[in-house]
Fold 2,3-bisphosphoglycerate-dependent phosphoglycerate mutase.
Amino acid sequence: MERLLVLVRHGQSEWNLQNLFTGWRDPDLTEKGVEEAKAAGRRLAASGLGFDIAYTSMLGRAQRTLGLVLDELGQTGLETIKKQELNERDYGELSGLNKDDARAKWGEEQVHVWRRSYDVPPPGGESLRDTGARVWPYYMTDILPGVMNGKRTLVAAHGNSLRALMMVLDKLTPKTVIDLELATGVPVVYRLNADTTVAEKLVLKG
Ligand SMILES: O=C(O)[C@@H](CO)OP(=O)(O)O
């Protein structure tokens, strides 16, 4: 039986382009982001992949990316579950600030720690561990059982909610996850073993 799980980070958003902390704010995709999403769909189609169910967050950039991917796959209208659990990490008081301005104010190192560390939350926001504390249970109780039952599953979400998920799939530690960066609009294809570990991982780059 096929146990297929594909993760894709949304295409470039207006705030990615403007270099702003985004979190739970809801900017749309840029034109480039739309193209990235379509290209992700075309790459999945070229790899012969199709899906039985899709999951996304409550944020427009992920939902729109999913819609564009499904259009390219000829799967418009596929059953889709939208969940706040899959939202981007809440950036708290950093939301809407320019990342370079933040570096100037708090220093390069502090900003890097807020952006990539496992357990240091930005002021008023979520650490990656906090994000995981909602992503992991949702994965275990809702997404993974479907995958294990042969439902070919697509998840369109965000840099940090997907980093949290990939910690589990790729067996990353709080130290090794610091170096994990996810490109926008690049599908990551997982095939799982019967014990839920990863049998195969493929990154569908352009
Ligand atoms: O601003 C954000 O919400 C995220 C993703 O774009 O940024 P970062 O790369 O700092 O995690």
